[in-house]
Hints:
Blueprint: H1 3-7, H2 9-19, H3 22-25, E1 34-35, H4 36-60, H5 67-87, E2 93-94, H6 96-116, H7 129-138, H8 141-160, H9 177-255, H10 260-282, E3 297-299, H11 300-308, E4 317-324, E5 333-335, H12 338-354, E6 358-365, E7 369-376, H13 421-431, E8 435-440, E9 448-455, H14 456-459
Parallel strand pairs: 4-6
Antiparallel strand pairs: 1-2, 3-5, 6-7, 7-9, 8-9
Helix pairs in contact: 2-9, 4-5, 5-6, 6-8, 7-8, 7-9, 8-9, 9-10, 11-12, 12-13
Amino acid sequence: MTVVEDNDAGGMRWVRRRLLSPEMRLGQVESGRVRLQTLVLLRWLAIVGQLVAVLLVTFWLEFPLPLGLCLLAILASAGLNIFLTLRYRKTIRLPDWQAAVYFAIDLAQLAVLLFLTGGLQNPFALLFMAPVTISATTLSLRSTIALLILSLIYVTSLAFFHMPLPWKPDEHFVVPDLYLVGNWVAISLGLGFMAAYAWRISQESKRMSAALSATQFVLARAQRLSALDGLAAAAAHELGTPLGTIALVAKELLRGGLTPEEMQEDLVLLASQAERCKEILGRLSREPKGEDALYSRLPLHVLLDEVINPHRDLDVHFSVSILAGEQDAVEPEIWRRPEILYGLGNFIENAADFAKSEVALIVVYTSGKIMLSIIDDGPGFAPDVIEKLGEPYVTTRPRSLARGTGADTDTEGEHEGMGLGFFIAKTLLERTKAKVEIANRQDGKAGAQVTVTWPREAIEADSPFPLKA
C-alpha cells in the first residue's frame, strides 16, 4: 500500500519479493559472513585468558594440575590462529559452515582443558556459552543449533568423565553430586537461553537493517524517476518550438519549387533544429540538480492537494483544513521533497483504504511548528498492534483493501498485507525531522488518527538538502 509502488512499480515489486520471501516472514534473515580477523582476535583473547589461568593456578595457588597437557591444548589453539593468519587475508569473510567448524574446534579445545582441570567442577565451564552466543549473533540458525547440541554433549560428558579438580595437595575436596547436577542444569539452561536470546536479537536487527535498506533502495529509485518526470515535462515544453519549425520546413520542402540555395538553407535549419531536439532530450540522461522543478517551493495547501490528487478516485471524500495557531503566523512554504510526498501519501492512502466515507486533513501551524493530522472514520487501529505500528512487518490488515486503485496485487484484486507501509512512511518523514504519532481518534468517534509534527525551520530551510538520513 505505498505510493512509491505507483511511481516505481518494478522496484517495489523487487522489494516485496525480497522482504516477503518465506525466509523473511519467518524471521530467518540471511546471516552475514564472519570476518576471519574477528575470530582470530577472539581466539587470541581466549588463549591469553586460558594461559593466565593455568599459570596462576600452578605457580601462584600451587595447585597440582597436568601443566604440560594444558599448555599443549592452548598451544594447539594458538597454532590454529597462526595458520589462519598466514593462510588467509585478514579481511576475508568466512562462509557460514567454515566459521561453524572453527567454533566447533574452539568448543573441543575448551572441553579438553576442562577435562584436564575438573570437568563441571571447574567454574570456568560456563565459558561454553561464549562460542554458542557468538554463533547465534553471526551464523545461521542451523549452525547455531549444531554448536548448541555439541556444547550440551561436552557439558554432559564432563559431568561424568574428567580428571580431578586442582586443589591443595594436603586437602581432599569433594563436590556434592547435587551441586554437580545443579551446575549441569544451570549451564545447559544458560546455553539454551543465551543462544535463543542472542539469535532473536540478531534477527530483529537484521530484519530492521533489511527493511531500511529496502526503503533507501525504493526512495533512491523513485527520487530519480520523479526528477526524470520534471525534466521530461520541461523537455516536452522546450521541444515544441524546434518541432514546430521542423514541421513547417518539411511542409515547404514537400510543396517544392525551391531554389537550390533555399533548399540548402532549409536543410541547414532542419539539421540545427534536430540538433536542438537532441540537446533537449540529452538532459534526461544527466544527473538532476538541486534547482530542478522537483525541489520547487510550494505553499502547504498546494503540496497537500498534490499528495491527495492520486487518491481522489477512491470512494471517500477528502477535506482539508489549514488553520493558524497564532494570530501572526503565516502559512508555510515547504520544499517539495520526495520524503514528504511519499510519506504523507502512504498515510493518506492507508486512511482512505479503511475510511467509510471521509478522510480529514487538519493542519495547524504556528511560527515554530507545523502539525498535520490525518483522520479517517474507519474502524481504527486494533489495540494489540497500535503500539507496534511503524515497525517493519507489522500490519493492520490480513489482506490489502485495494479499492480499484490499480495497485499491483499478487492474486485477483488483493494481496497479503506487507506491514511495510507505515514503516516506510514513518521512516521517510522522520528523515525530515518529523515526529509521527499513531493513535485512534480522541473525539469519541471510531477511526484512526496519524499526527505528523515538524519543527517549522526543518522544512522551510534555505536548501532542499539540509538533512541527512
